[in-house]
Amino acid sequence: MAERRFGVGYALAPKKQQSFIQDSLVSLAKSHGVDLVRIDEDRPLADQGPFDCVLHKLYGVDWRQQLEDFRAVNPNAVIIDSPEAIERLHNRISMLQVVSELKIEDRSETFGIPKQIVIYDKETLLDRPAWEGLKFPIIAKPLVADGSAKSHKMALVFNHDSLNSLKPPIVLQEFVNHGGVIFKVYVVGEYVKCVKRKSLPDVSEEEKVGSLEGLLSFSQVSNLATNERTDDKYYKKMHLDETEMPPQSLLIEIAKGLRRAMKLHLFNFDVIRDARFGNRYLIIDINYFPGYAKMPGYEKIMTDFFCDIMHKKERDAEKVLEENDDNGVDGLGCEKGVRKLVSNSCGSDGEDGVLPVSPIGREEEKPIQV
């Protein structure tokens, strides 16, 4: 009996495509019944496929319209993820607001976000009373977080005089000492993986008061661009390898809450441990569709994710059929119990599974949401 395969069309910027769509991923996915197919950006998306799932990281009005057109003629296809949900992460204020909405109880650890405010104009930036709740040093970040080079231009600011060189709209965020280590938590559906990376070194009280450099630029919050303490000797002193990871159970609960609140499946969030309180964790950034290829064994993680999507899609299709049966209706006039099952290699540990094939006609399909 023919194998039921699952087509995933991907639309990614060239740099993202190069890092993510590696031969090892394509091969493993194919062996599990998942075919990864590049979407041609020079052709209308609605004319391509058929795709069971569209995986994308493109932006703009035209791309949004193409997704809408595709959805109109393929209502049963899964789109990972919706542009509306992704858009929330393009604003550094709205991206972290969701953290305060999470409810996780009965834990000894606490979590939250650093104090921060958004500045829209130069006048407010230079008006001390407007943001006196923040104490130096502070991190200045562009309000827009769209992955562009401009959105990564951040600075560590030590005094008020240095604010004049900043260009609003920006977010001013309290800098919290965290031992020079940042925890990057990758989320792929229900899978959660935490890794630790070098981050900004702690700032002593003496440095806060007597820093000669009023403003220190760096390309990303986890990597300094210029500082005498970025060498390996400093970080060896910080004992990066010995740094204790946050409790995995806490990270899983936070990831689950974020996934549900944001309605996203592919993202990561950056966490630091507040040096003032050993069990206090602060989320400082959330990114959509990060560099998963940096994770060891990312091929299996992503393949399992595609398989999970496929299983849910098939289950939902079967549920529709069962509901029709309960109402005495069958879209193809088939008798109850006559539906065929075909084998599919999409399953845990590489074992063959049995998945139902939906015989629903296109005009009777219902949208699948994951």
TrEMBL record:
Annotated residues for binding of Mg(2+) 1: D270, D285
Residues noted as binding ATP in the record, renumbered to the chain: 92, 141, 173-184, 199
One GO term of the biological process aspect: inositol trisphosphate metabolic process
Span of domain Inositol-tetrakisphosphate 1-kinase N-terminal: 8-86
Cellular component per GO, a single term: cytoplasm
Residues annotated as binding Mg(2+) 2: D285, N287
Start-end of Basic and acidic residues biased regions: 361-370
Stored Gene3D superfamilies: ATP-grasp fold, B domain
Annotated positions binding 1D-myo-inositol 1,3,4,6-tetrakisphosphate: K57
Cofactor binding note of this UniProt entry: Binds 2 magnesium ions per subunit.
Residues that coordinate or bind 1D-myo-inositol 1,3,4-trisphosphate: K16, H152, K184, N287, G291
Keywords: ATP-binding, Kinase, Magnesium, Metal-binding, Nucleotide-binding, Transferase
Cofactor annotation: Mg(2+)
Origin: domain of life: Eukaryota
GO MF term list: ATP binding; inositol-1,3,4-trisphosphate 5-kinase activity; inositol-1,3,4-trisphosphate 6-kinase activity; inositol-3,4,5,6-tetrakisphosphate 1-kinase activity; magnesium ion binding
Keyword Lipid metabolism attributed: no
Description of how the protein assembles with itself and partners: Monomer.
Annotated family: Belongs to the ITPK1 family.
Protein name from the UniProt record: Inositol-tetrakisphosphate 1-kinase
Record organism: Cannabis sativa (Hemp)
